[in-house]
Amino acid sequence: MNPLEHQIHYPMGDTLPPEGQTIEVAPGIKWIRMALPFALDHINLWLLRDRHPDASGAMVEGWTVVDCCIDSASTRAQWEQIFKSSLEGLPVLRVIVTHMHPDHIGLAHWLCARWNVRLWISATDYNVARVAVYDPHGFGGEAGADFYALHGADDEAFLSHVRGRASYFPTLVPALPERFRRMMDGDTVDVGGRSWRCISGYGHAPEHIALYCEELGILLSGDMVLPRISTNVSVHATEPEANPLELFLTSLLRYRDLPAETLVLPSHGKPFLGLATRIAQLQGHHKDRLADILEAAQTRALSAADVLPILFRRTLDTHQMTFAMGEALAHLHYLWGEGRVERAAGTDGVLRFTAAQRATP
């Protein structure tokens, strides 16, 4: 166990929802856990008891779904089990997606069509998802491989993997709902008579939306605050000079002042208490890694590939390597944005970063 975990509390202990079933974590909130075929092997999804007026104005009882999982035969089957076991005979009234990554938006098109309901999501993430689904050159492919090679990746097996990722996103997210309802920072969403405030976050996704209910003291944190792992923050080929780590660390401050007793319902891991502590841990983690990188950059020029063993002390498979390269570059760009490192191309064309004069860890 990560020793930092002792500083936060899991009120439900090791209890997890069985496959195809739910656990009620608070009045009107049910927890779903679905398997993922990745190293991060699960995602948490949520059912919120809701009521909406229908076309005639009559109030209809039902559920809001928060996040969807990837599209696959097994996840569709699990959802069908949920519909039978956990909806109490009531319909789904709305689908909310925190952000556009495949494990969150993959089945949104199917759920919305299945129940004839609207998708709620930030406009930025909806439109970036459209690029990823419908533009075969939007993510991965040759452009992605060239980008990683520019930053020092030279393993041909890895670069070949990236070239084959042009169809990766639409494999997991084959379609999107044609229409959506926009959520923005500061909006309030009425769910079953309770107000949930939208809190935008950046760095992990283009415009991630977490939801906070003051009445219940609950934060649906999505991927912005996770209890065991640090959220991936990456630079991508489509925005090659981005500084997502700065955006992410600044975004975390939006959650820091929520009440100490806030129950955090994350997209990965278990519900936990200790939000401010966890935010401090995440800030400290990245500060330490930045210091490690800057120390190394005092003595040699570093490409993103050179930074991998500084950030990751374990063997990475090719799938994990794409996230790791993006994260290494995010840390270098943070230091670059602060003027603590300088960037230059070597004679081999690879971009490398060296400590600026008077830069200290």
Task: Furnish the topology, listing elements before pairings.
Layout: E1 23-26, E2 29-35, E3 42-53, E4 59-66, H1 73-86, E5 92-96, H2 102-105, H3 108-115, E6 119-121, H4 123-134, H5 141-150, H6 156-163, H7 168-172, E7 180-182, E8 188-191, E9 194-201, E10 208-213, E11 218-222, H8 244-256, E12 263-266, E13 272-273, H9 275-297, H10 304-311, H11 318-337, E14 341-345, E15 351-355
Parallel strand pairs: 4-5, 5-6, 6-7, 11-12
Antiparallel strand pairs: 1-2, 2-3, 3-4, 8-9, 9-10, 10-11, 12-13, 14-15
Walkthrough of the structure:
The chain has helices spanning 73-86, 102-105, 108-115, 123-134, 141-150, 156-163, 168-172, 244-256, 275-297, 304-311, 318-337, and strands spanning 23-26, 29-35, 42-53, 59-66, 92-96, 119-121, 180-182, 188-191, 194-201, 208-213, 218-222, 263-266, 272-273, 341-345, 351-355. It is of the alpha/beta class and 361 residues long. It has a single domain (3-298), classed as Ribonuclease Z/Hydroxyacylglutathione hydrolase-like (Metallo-beta-lactamase, Chain A), CATH 3.60.15. Strands 1-2-3-4-5-6-7 form a seven-stranded mixed sheet. A six-stranded mixed sheet has the order 8-9-10-11-12-13. 44% of the residues are buried. The model has no long low-confidence stretch (mean pLDDT 94).
